[in-house]
Design a protein that fits this description.
676 residues; mainly alpha; Heat Shock Protein 90; five-stranded mixed beta sheet; 24 helices; 5 strands
Length: 676
């Protein structure tokens, strides 16, 4: 446990110096508070208070990493001061934070700490194994060899406790190889601990020669270690036990004889009691011993363990005394110590000694009592065997699930990456397509505007040309009337006036008759003047101009489309004062409507009328075609264009149609006059 706590401390104390200069003062305070929280000379309350203050200051830096490190230090302070529940709560919260921040180092260290908690404090080996396994994967990915080796040792230790000796041996060897490749100050002590574990595991696997080799390597390392002699004695004790289990009692006793009087051994009376028991029991197993000496030494070992309340040595000494008395046929004493070892092994519990004590009791008792111990032995043995197999399988399942989860996470990460790339590609493609379509639409719109502008310009020029022709015709007509007035009417009027003047001096019937003829000529001249006046008053080009252009459009297109038509228009509209924009749009509306009728209506007759009602120009276009559903088919380009042109001149439009019953387009446009 001491070794594992040192490992955890080495994992927690990592570099935290990557911060911006602007927070130096605040960070200095945080570092001081963190150090104070680890100061063992301070009280528990003071240390926790310093840790909490470090966390509070860290939050002010707005740095998630700084805060997480301070929270980890606080959690470690809880662990060192025995606040294990607070340590667990804070560590689990810190683990979630580290995962959110994707802080791989933090995730590894926190998992290592939780593994220690569950292994050594809560004694939940399976849960500890899960956390250690996750820490191992992160340390491996981060290439943190030292920490990886520590975790491998912890996993091997758990596997040894749960009797997964092969798994323990494999992971311990992996850890040893890593430490052998490192050149660090405390590597030798790490190697010693792992070699000691490998020696114990090899003994349990009955690989005695390997066990001796590992323990001898451990002894060699003790020469360079602090408390080396104490560690050497521990390893020599393990070597002696290995020889004993191998059946080499001579070598075992030689080693025990070498260490039993060592001052370093007697400095630790608990360990001295254990070695004394091992030494004495080895003498007993060899078969050549002094009864009283062995009895006294075994009892002395038991007394030392009872005085020190060392339950483990007490268990070993009790069972060895039971075996000793059983072989020497001292049944009462054997049963007494067998019952004592039975109770101790059951309460601690240590299964091997528990089973052994039941066998001894079964042999020392008779009848139902003996059978009861045997049945209990079989039941417990089966339960232990099943539990050991289940534990080993559980470790395998944990590792499998962890590997599977890691593979799934990796696959999910890949899928997310592919999805992200695909999404970005799709967005870029959509943007490109949108820009392409948008640009093409803009180009088409621009082209359409250009075409419409050209068409409007053509119509305007056509109307100007027509207007010029009308103006020219009017000028010619005025010239003709002027010439007719001058050459005809005025000449005749002048001649008649002269003739009448000459008749003023004459009387008689002939004179009267002549004057009457001249008066008749004056009447004729009056009629001629009235006729000319009427012609001047009635503009012979009235109704021409714009209407002529529209009439020419209608007659031309209807002839080309081979359709019958009727065109009615009102003379009340003075097209000369109507705004050109209105005339251009009316022209285009009629043109578009006739094209739609030709393309879609299957009509034979089209009626077009233009009238003036309440200062509103009313345009009506009616066909006898197949009609359409006005609730569905208003989205055609032709109808959109017509509607757009009506809206352009602030007009209103109505489509009236039924399937099979023709179509009527009714348009009302304000009678807008040209701006002056």
């Amino acid at each position: 446990m001491r070794f594992k706590l040192l490992i955890l401390f080495s994992c927690i104390t990592v570099s935290t110096a990557l911060f911006s200069q602007e927070n130096n003062s605040l960070l200095d305070s945080i570092f001081i508070l963190r150090d104070l929280s680890s100061d063992k000379s301070l009280s528990k309350t003071e240390r926790i208070d310093y840790g909490l203050r470090a966390v509070a200051l860290s939050k002010k830096t707005k740095s998630d990493t700084t805060t997480l490190i301070s929270q980890r230090k606080l959690a470690y302070t809880y662990l060192l001061t025995g606040e294990f529940e607070l340590y667990k709560i804070n560590s689990l919260r810190n683990l979630e934070t580290a995962r959110t921040l994707k802080d791989s180092t933090g995730i590894a260290l926190i998992n290592a700490g939780l593994g220690y908690l569950y292994s050594e404090i809560e004694l939940d080996k399976a849960e500890a194994y899960t956390y250690y396994l996750e820490a191992l994967k992160y340390f491996d990915a981060l290439d943190m060899s030292y920490d990886k080796a520590n975790i491998l040792y912890n996993i091997a230790s758990i596997q040894d406790d749960e009797k997964d000796y092969l798994g323990s041996e494999q992971n311990a060897i992996k850890a040893l190889r890593i430490f052998e490749s490192l050149d660090l100050e405390d590597v030798e002590s790490k190697k010693y601990t792992i070699l000691n574990l490998l020696g114990l595991v090899s003994l349990k696997l009955q690989n005695y020669d390997e066990a001796l080799e590992f323990h001898n390597q451990a002894v060699d390392l003790t020469k360079n270690l602090e408390d080396g002699r104490q560690l050497e004695i521990e390893s020599l004790n393990n070597i002696a036990i290995t020889y004993r289990e191998k059946g080499d009692y001579k070598n075992a006793l030689n080693i025990f004889s070498e260490i039993i009087d060592s001052p370093q051994l007697k400095a630790d009376m608990s360990f001295y009691g254990l070695v004394l028991n091992n030494f004495t029991y080895t003498k007993f197993l060899r078969g050549e011993y002094d009864y009283k000496e062995v009895e006294n030494d075994l009892k002395k070992s038991l007394e030392i363990s009872e005085e020190l309340e060392d339950e483990y040595t007490k268990l070993y000494a009790s069972l060895d005394l039971a075996r000793f008395y059983k072989r020497n046929k001292v049944a009462d004493s054997s049963k007494k110590y067998a019952l004592q070892s039975y109770r101790l092994a059951k309460s601690i519990p240590i299964n091997d000694y528990y089973l052994e004590s039941m066998l001894v009791l079964a042999e020392l008792t008779k009848g139902d009592e003996s059978s009861s111990y045997l049945r209990e032995h079989i039941r417990v043995a089966d339960s232990i065997y099943g539990k050991e197999r289940a534990t080993q399988n559980k470790f395998a399942r944990i590792e499998y699930k962890t590997d599977k989860l890691e593979a799934e996470n990796e696959q999910i990460s890949k899928e997310n990456l592919y999805l992200l790339i695909l999404s970005i590609g799709s967005v870029l493609a959509a943007i490109i397509v949108y820009l392409f379509i948008s640009q093409r639409a803009k180009n088409r719109k621009l082209k359409l505007i250009q075409v419409q502008s050209k068409a409007n310009e053509d119509i305007y020029n056509l109307m100007r040309e027509q207007q010029d022709k009308v103006d020219e015709a009017r000028a010619l007509e005025k010239k003709r009337i002027s010439e007719e007035l001058h050459d005809g009417v005025l000449g005749r009027l002048f001649g008649t006036r002269l003739s009448l003047d000459s008749m003023n001096l004459k009387d008689g019937k002939d004179a009267i008759k002549t004057r009457a003829e001249y008066i008749g000529q004056l009447k004729t001249i009056e009629e001629d003047i009235r006729k000319i006046s009427h012609e001047l008053n009635t503009d012979f080009v009235a109704g021409s101009g714009f209407i002529d252009i529209v009439s020419e459009l209608i007659s031309g297109q209807m002839q080309a489309y081979e359709l019958q038509y009727e065109f009615d228009h009102s003379d009340e509209i003075d097209w000369d004062v109507v705004d050109n924009r209105v005339k251009i749009n009316i022209y285009r509306i009629i043109q578009e409507a006739m094209q739609n009728v030709y393309k879609h209506a299957q009509a034979k007759l089209i009626k077009i009328s233009i009238s003036l009602q309440k200062n509103v120009i009313c345009l009506s276009i009616i066909d006898d075609g197949i009609g359409f559903d006005t609730s569905k088919n208003k989205k055609g380009i032709g109808l959109k264009n017509i509607t757009s042109r009506v809206e352009d001149v602030n007009g209103e439009i109505e489509f009236v149609s039924k399937i099979g019953d023709g179509t009527a387009i009714n348009i009302e446009i304000p009678y807008l006059k040209k701006s002056t």
